[in-house]
Write a structure and sequence with these properties.
This protein is of the alpha+beta class and about 280 residues long. The chain has 2 domains: about 190 residues, no CATH class; about 70 residues, 2-Layer Sandwich (Alpha-Beta Plaits), CATH 3.30.70. Helix content is about 65%, strand content about 10%. Helix 2 runs parallel beside helix 8. The protein is elongated. It starts with a helix and ends in a 12-residue tail after the last strand. InterPro entries: DUF2179, N-reg_PII/ATP_PRibTrfase_C, UPF0750_membrane, YitT. Its main location: membrane. It is found in: Cell membrane.
């Protein structure tokens, strides 16, 4: 199983966001917004002497096994690493800042902040073909076999927890949990969409050869060449098309600005690119 250092770093960043949002915003307000963290918050509200981080660790084993069998060992390995990182970070935060209390009496704003932070972290993790563990493994399985988006799959997997939160923590907390799950699913989809957005660029320039060389040699991307006839001068034109991430597009735009400030460029946003050099088709 091969996991590069960039993946490990990003998984740790995602784990830190999830742990921070859970411990400082959701847990103090007893908002069980899905996942094993939600189940842990429910149990902790009944048995406050059992640490939330320890509860989260204890609930992962069966779901890990299911994830490894159904989705594969790479997903399973990343998920185990992520899940135990979150649990360990929550335990560490509990040691450094024990008995954390709500920051204010405004539960709604703390719910929104907590979900924003957790959703950002979960989006980063899901984008790396991993999950934060727990019910997110179920969401990943739903996504694999139905092509329902990850965010909506998380929503489906967490509904039962929000119902339990309503029964155990009260209607008010339960409604907050339901709102949290809905917000969380939306944020996850938005984060994944933004991390996988590209620019489809079409260029007409009198310096096409230099632009093609720059795309291939400097940006390490390929390009497709079309030939078109201009309606105004009835002349043949070479159209260079390529797909770049946002950083690469800015480099190309700045290069063309210096090389040919009269070049004609059209840009379209692309939400997903599959195939060689991009996301593997699965």
């Amino acid at each position: 199983m091969k996991i590069n250092l960039k993946d490990i770093f990003l998984i740790l960043v995602g784990s830190l966001f999830v742990a921070f949002g859970t411990y400082f915003f959701l847990a103090p307000n007893h908002i069980a917004a899905g996942g094993t963290s939600g189940i842990a918050i429910i149990i902790n509200s009944i048995f406050p002497n059992i640490p939330i981080g320890l509860l989260m660790m204890g609930m992962e084993v069966i779901l890990f096994t299911i994830g490894i069998i159904v989705i594969g060992p790479v997903f399973g390995g990343k998920t185990i690493f992520c899940s135990f990182s979150i649990s360990a970070l929550v335990l560490l935060m509990g040691k450094i800042y024990p008995n954390i209390k709500p920051f204010s009496n405004d539960t709604l704003i703390q719910l929104i902040l907590g979900i924003l932070i957790c959703g950002l972290g979960m989006g980063i993790v899901f984008n790396l073909n991993a999950s934060t563990g727990g019910t997110d493994i179920i969401a990943k399985i739903i996504n694999k076999y139905t092509q329902i988006s990850i965010g909506k799959s998380v929503l489906m997997a967490d509904i039962a927890i929000t119902i339990a939160a309503t029964l155990i923590l009260g209607v008010s907390k339960g409604m907050y949990a339901i709102l949290g799950v809905i917000l969380n699913s939306t944020i996850i989809d938005k984060v994944i969409l933004s991390l996988n957005s590209y620019k489809q660029v079409a260029i007409i320039s009198n310096n096409g050869e230099n632009i093609k060389k720059y795309i291939v040699n400097e940006l390490s991307r390929s390009a497709t060449i079309y030939y078109a006839k201009g309606a105004y001068k009835n002349s043949n034109k070479e159209v260079i098309t390529t797909i770049l991430d946002r950083k690469q597009f800015l480099k190309l735009k700045n290069y063309i600005k210096v090389l040919d400030d009269k070049a004609f460029i059209t840009v379209n946003d692309v939400n997903e690119v599959l195939g060689e050099g991009f996301t593997r088709i699965i």
